[in-house]
Amino acid sequence: MKRAFFVVILVTIFTGNLWAQGKFEGKIVKKGIFQAEGFFKKQLPILSGGQEDIVIVKGSKLLQLSAATNLLVLLDFDNKCAYNILPQKKVVNKVPYPGGRHPNDLFQKTDEKKEIEGLICTKYVSKVDNKGVVAEAEYWIPDGVLDSQEKIDIYNYMFQGLDGFVMEGVAEMRSTIPLFKGKSLAVTNTVRVDRTPVADSIFDIPSGYKYVNDKEYQKIWKKYVAQLNKERAKMDKNTELFVPENVWDF
What we know:
Distance between the termini: 20 Å
Structural class: mainly beta
Order of helices and strands: EHEEEEEEEEHEEEH
Largest sheet: 12 strands, mixed
Strand content: 35-45%
Number of helices: 3
Mean pLDDT: 86
Shape: globular
Helix content: 10-25%
Low-confidence stretches: 1-21
Strand order of the largest sheet: 7-8-9-10-11-1-2-3-4-5-6-12
Number of strands: 12
Radius of gyration: 18 Å
């Protein structure tokens, strides 16, 4: 939020209607594998076993969870806002949607489509070359799961220029700047799509969580990540990270 490349062109029937798949309800389970060298490896200890991410969708709500950071992001499309949630610290930061799209909207939508775990997806690409730092990405984003342009725009604003969550993708960064020399590679793949109906309660923030403003949240987040990095540095590098069965039990 304020805070990561596979191709088949499908027949015209899938390109004509963005919402052709119908409304989606359920859970998408993804796995990410990361590699890093030099400067980028120093920023966050890399666990080569990979991490699990989960996206849960129902109606006007979307909950996105990362096992790498234990961060939950809840999008409430009806009320046009998002919530950054740290279960381990029991804090919540509300982020209102001001309208429009993210100012750094760097991803270009292509005409290429393919099916991933039963969902038709569109390919997005991005390349930024900024004075010695090159970042390239190729992402596949599902059509119609965000079933209105307003939902797409809200997601785009909250997730730094993406028109939806990534089902499959590759992101690479390379730096030749002496003080920041290094490279990183992130690969994401969807391992399961579960269309089991979702209970409304999964989107309820538990009682006892403290709501904090942006400044307070950034301070808590910075200290939390520093401690998390120390803990990860001591773990076996082949460790896999999973989202708990009860997503609020991080």
